[in-house]
Design a protein that fits this description.
This protein has 369 residues and is α+β, with helices and mostly antiparallel strands. Helix content is 18%, strand content 53%. It has a 17-stranded mixed sheet. Strand 10 and strand 11 form a beta hairpin. The longest helix has 18 residues. The chain is elongated. The termini are far apart.
């Protein structure tokens, strides 16, 4: 019995020491340790006007930083923050290791450079691992400095929360100078490591240039450690949108519409030039109805029609007549394994998607040469 009581009291004392660590820890030791770790891993310079430890009975040590930030090697600003709370796990800290639980930022301003090769300064300086701390931003601004065009775009909003890529919540707008391009609201549970999957998207865009939108989307996805090589896509055209879509991947609730005019897309994996893309997609009455969607693929019309109902039942049809057979064979048939040489000719195709998109849809395709 005495041994049990002794173990109990030692455990209680250790737990008490562990959770009350913030009451007697030295702020300067751990601030410097944090900054040294940041500079070692990124090459960015850390600065802070003032710092204090939040006193709390907790397994985390919370540094409260005032007017802090990081600088590029040339001393230009990478990020500047009015106030930041950084919660660090205590046990790894006692072993001289930094593991961050979450980061709360007030009025952060992030400056991202989009280089001429379409890479960006986030991926250059920050090595994002699979374990991403939860980040909660209030009154944020993200600037994108495009070296190719010399233009400066920025996202600005009230809320930007990233919880380990399991929950992303944001509101704000995209600007070029003082011109607003897109206003957005998003609440997304992608279900990457959990069963919870749903999204709520709302957007309004007036005459936005698709080329700029694709470039910025690529930079944002890289920041979120999502591999989508949008930098390899060349897109042109004008987009207008005013819609809201909600779904739990079982039902759809939507309203509004999207219009795309005089667009074109090229990519090294696309065998044909795709241009004259025009689309009118209606989201009203909790369904997605494709009123008009057409493009010219290698100067041949291709059309998409149909709709997706609120219960995710789909009836979609993609069809074209007169596509060039020689170009298609060169793009899709295995090289040096096809016994015939195709010199000319055309073909027609029809592809249909029917059924419920959440469980039992079918895709059928027919080709007529």
């Amino acid at each position: 019995m005495k041994k049990i009581l002794l173990v109990f009291f030692i455990s209680a004392a250790a737990l008490g020491f562990y959770c009350s660590f913030s009451y007697f820890a030295d702020i300067n030791n751990y601030k410097e340790q944090l900054f040294q770790e940041i500079e070692k891993k990124t090459g960015l310079k850390a600065s802070c006007e003032n710092a204090e430890l939040k006193k709390a009975f907790s397994p985390y040590l919370t540094l409260h930083l005032y007017h802090t930030g990081l600088l590029y090697p040339d001393n230009t600003k990478f990020i500047q923050i009015k106030e930041a709370d950084i919660s660090i796990k205590i046990l790894p800290l006692l072993m001289k290791k930094i593991q961050i639980k979450n980061i709360n930022l007030k009025r952060p301003i992030l400056n991202i450079i989009i280089y001429k090769n379409f890479s960006n300064s986030i991926e250059k300086y920050l090595k994002i691992n699979d374990i991403i701390p939860d980040i909660f931003c209030r009154d944020y601004k993200i600037k994108f400095n495009d070296e190719t065009s010399g233009k400066v775009f920025y996202l600005e909003g009230r809320i930007l929360d990233i919880e380990g890529l399991e929950h992303i919540k944001a509101d704000g707008a995209l600007f070029e100078d003082k011109k607003e391009y897109i206003r957005y609201e998003a609440d997304i549970h992608p279900g990457l490591n959990s069963k919870k999957r749903n999204f709520d998207l709302k957007a309004k865009a007036d005459n936005i240039n698709i080329e700029n939108a694709v470039k910025l989307a690529g930079a944002v996805l890289k920041i979120l450690n999502i591999n989508a090589p949008l930098n390899e896509i060349r897109a042109e055209g004008i987009l207008n949108a005013d819609f809201q879509i909600k779904s739990d991947f079982k039902k759809l609730d939507s309203s509004g519409r999207i219009e795309l005019n005089s667009a074109s897309i090229t990519h090294k994996t696309i065998p044909y030039p795709i241009k004259d893309i025009n689309a009118d997609i209606n989201f009203s009455s909790s369904r997605i109805k494709i009123a008009k969607a057409q493009a010219a693929v290698n100067n041949t019309p291709v059309q998409l029609s149909g709709q997706i109902q609120s219960n995710l039942n789909a009836d979609l049809k993609l069809y074209s007549e007169g596509l060039d057979l020689k170009t298609a064979a060169a793009a899709f048939l295995p090289k040096n394994k096809f016994p015939f040489e195709i010199k000319n000719g055309t073909f027609n195709f029809v592809s249909e998607i029917k059924g419920n998109l959440s469980k039992d849809y079918k895709i059928t395709s027919n080709v007529l040469v």
